[in-house]
């Protein structure tokens, strides 16, 4: 049996308990990494596996509207870092003290410290103007890119690579520095690198910025804000237990 056929058979098999455990471990231990990056280089085969996982995300109409721009040039990184600092200072004016000072004290990116930066973009023109499933909800293409980013994030965690999403940036600056075509939209600017450790909890939760909501606070049944529908009694009890392994 050749390797290709063997892989197809493996993909159709049920997940073992160990495989399920590994999958949930990746989800619950995934972190938005901003610090603790080490100087250890990410090997090319690891980067390739992570990107391939991202590329196998679901996409509306099988449009695969993403592109991935790998960055390690220090000059490029410094330009992006300057945009971050400008945007962080600007956004700090949206909150009052003492939250403003607390916000400004947070380490919210690892642009220069991480060995690899990665910009994930959305190209709505791929495969022409008509994409199955996008005519009623145009944003479905953007959602597809977010699915690719989540795949990438979980694959990175599985490989022991930290990833941080830097959202405090100017898209105009990103488009200029990375020479993106006018119609291409930058969706995520990511920092990748090995880290000393993965935190037990998200940084902003640990810092007391916001709490993690219980699962029961975000699940409704049949209609908005219906939390006591009798048709869903059993799962309601399970949700009250807040099955959270993070």
UniProtKB/TrEMBL annotation:
EC numbers, comma separated: 1.16.8.1
Alphabetical keyword list: Flavoprotein, FMN, NAD, NADP, Nucleotide-binding, Oxidoreductase
MF terms (GO), sorted A to Z: nucleotide binding; oxidoreductase activity
Transmembrane segments: none
Coiled coil segments of this chain: none
Enzyme superclass (EC): oxidoreductase
Domain Nitroreductase: 27-194
UniProt superkingdom: Archaea
NCBIfam families: BluB
Protein name from the UniProt record: Cob(II)yrinic acid a,c-diamide reductase
